[in-house]
Amino acid sequence: MTKESQIYPVVWDGDKVVLIDQTKLPNQYEVVEISRSADMAEAIQTMIVRGAPAIGVAAAYGMYLGAREIKTSEREEFLSKLEKVAQTLRNTRPTAVNLFWAIARMVKTAYENIGTVEEITAILLETAKQIQLEDLETCQKIGDNGLEVLPTSPTKLTILTHCNTGALATAGYGTALGVIRSAWREERLIRVYADETRPRLQGAKLTAWECVQDGIPVTVITDSMAAHCMQQGMIDAVIVGADRIAANGDTANKIGTYALAVVAKYHNVPFFVAAPLSTVDFELANGSKIPIEERHPSEIYQIGNTVLSPTGVEFYNPAFDVTPGELISAIITERGAVKPSELMGYCESREIEK
Ligand code: MRU
């Protein structure tokens, strides 16, 4: 039995969406109420809501909010305006495929429904709720499937993770942090090492906060300390999430993931990716064409009001990197764990929709 985490970053509240403001954690727990599609797009872009599955769920609700703002009873006009809503939401963040996946599912639902505009709009709300529910269930399955592949020796593990892949990054429970939650529940975990995850510090702020909420022992390290910890034999496994997985298993995830995978390989530490199948982009044969979001340089040179670097310096701020599939021990999905090189065949043999 999976114990749910009680953290839900996206909540439908009768007539609006309530988001946990992830830019304020851990110092302030604040929520933001979203009633308009444009505000949802802004919340995704500014990372009030973030994490691949969570932005998929948020965008699905954004599609519904946009649909209910459209003032027409003409089906064709409605669908064409809905496409504009979809495009605004697609333009928010380029890397996480769950965003595009959820929007595509909402658009398809609208096109396939032959009812009135009012009926289509109502179906869109139900579809958004369904996407959210499915993601929660998916994460719980990922968590438990992870237990099948985690090392059995030592019996209690120390696991390193990167960024935030927990309840905050999904509909609830989490992917990589979901596996960690399941391991903790089954008494197979001693401690989590959380990379702080420069520059936005999702590890130091959000993963640490979630672990504290659930009583999971956590040690925060700076990203540059991970290699040392592995060299010292302190880490039994690394588990990370994913923003987009190509058909060959190459995986885009938060910047710094690739370096971790290289170091893990060197030290024979198993390196797992935990992600829903909605994160797999079967259109891409390998990771070379995954679009990498570049964010504002102030994320590097500024902390709060303090500017860290002198003027006259250039900055480069890619938010994600791509880890080659050959560095990944297994990809843990809701249907089980699979070697990256076998991902395509695995999905075909299980008739998983591409
Ligand atoms: O920029 P973010 O915070 O949205 O990046 C999040 C990540 O990279 C996560 O590891 C990924 O989305 C998986 S979340 C389950």
Order of H and E elements: EEEHHHHHEHEHEHEEEHEEHEEEEEH
Mean pLDDT: 96
CATH topology descriptor of the largest domain:
Rossmann fold
CATH architecture identity of the largest domain:
3-Layer(aba) Sandwich
The number of helical elements comes to 11
What percentage of amino acids are in beta strands?
15-25%
The main β sheet shows up as: 7 strands, mixed
CATH homologous superfamily placement of the largest domain: Translation initiation factor eif-2b, domain 2
Please give the order of strands in the largest beta sheet.
6-5-4-7-10-15-16
Poorly predicted runs: none
Distance between the termini: 30 Å
Structure write-up:
The chain has helices at residues 37-45, 52-69, 75-90, 97-112, 117-149, 176-185, 202-214, 226-231, 257-266, 298-301, 343-349; strands at 10-12, 17-20, 31-34, 157-161, 189-195, 218-221, 237-240, 244-246, 251-254, 271-274, 280-281, 302-303, 306-307, 320-323, 330-333, 336-338. The protein folds into two domains: 10-141, translation initiation factor eif-2b, domain 1 (Four Helix Bundle (Hemerythrin (Met), subunit A), Up-down Bundle), CATH 1.20.120; 143-349, Translation initiation factor eif-2b, domain 2 (Rossmann fold), CATH 3.40.50.10470. The chain is built from eleven helices and 16 strands. The protein is 40% helix and 17% strand. Helix 7 (202-214) links the parallel strand 5 and strand 6 (218-221). Helix 5 crosses helix 6 (176-185). The chain is α/β, with parallel strands linked by helices and 354 residues long. It binds 5-S-methyl-1-O-phosphono-5-thio-D-ribulose. The site of 5-S-methyl-1-O-phosphono-5-thio-D-ribulose has 17 residues, from helix 2 and strand 9.
